[in-house]
Amino acid sequence: MTSLPLVFEAPQRAMPPRHLADLDPTERRAVAGELGLPAFRIDQLARHYFGRFIADVEAMTDVPAAGRERLRVLLPTLVTPVTVQTADRGATRKTLWRGLDGTLTESVLMGYPDRATVCISSQAGCGMACPFCATGQGGLKRNLSTAEIVDQVRQAAAAARDGALGEPTRLSNVVFMGMGEPLANYKRVVAAVRRIIDPSPNGLGISARGVTVSTVGLVPGIERLAAEGLPVTLAVSLHTPDDELRDTLVPVNNRWKVEEVLAAAHRYARTTGRRVSIEYALIRDVNDQPWRAELLGTLLRRHIGARLVHVNLIPLNPTPGSEWDASPRPVQDEFVARVRAAGVACTVRDTRGREIDAACGQLAASPPVSA
Which residues does S-adenosyl-L-methionine bind (predicted)? Predict the structure, then answer.
């Protein structure tokens, strides 16, 4: 089996133009001076963007026309939708976005009886080279800017509010489980998290408890995130408890082994008080053996603690032409039972959008198709 080299640094490409969502409150005040506007005009702009999800300055009628013209530079259109596909009777909406430089990214908006969740991308492509993931096999194109990340959430919030999922609802959950390794784009992802959770006019006001940041196990990034003081959920894409197989399934394991990753996850849980989620894509005849379930439960209980961890089992969403397939239901049920028998909570993720390649954890780098 061949695999692509790991890429921790994104290729050097020009980032998109400066956007309001790239700026923290201090930077906004400085920009107000640059534009020759009082600071409260930037606050007005921010209230429209973050509080009302408006990105068209012409719709901001409480701002004088001259002010709107000056503020326009802070709301460049960074991404445009190429296609929108729906599944699950309209409860799942996958959007393919094109950036200003032509790079493609994806997000998926999902409605549930008790919540609305958006799965967002943090990079165009991914450099982690996991062989069962179409995005990973496509390689890394570039990091997304803070604003490109935030705008996926803003547009999802607007769509949910406007009834895109059926009944109008409020976006309550954001998961960084789309294209890319979030901790490989660390500074921009953390800045985006702050914009997502800060109240208006500084952010979208989504509860930090509704935000999940995933990683394949970049231990230094986990340590840095624990020190940020952001009570978001950490999700570790483990996929197997043994180093021998994980070296192949998740090549970053060649740098940071399972026990190192679990130790970092334990420190994260202790520091933040947030239970860690262990993501485990169940692959037929690869990582679905009962002994692996038992080892997984044992290691999690030993290194993190049963009260501080939860296993989120993901039935694999096969991609066209892939050698990988989902485990049969009886095998899945046995795996869950073995993990629970070890004293660790384990549930099976609801697989959404299989027919549009949008099942969470397997967001694929699909080519654009005509709308």
Answer: 180-181, 214, 237-239, 317
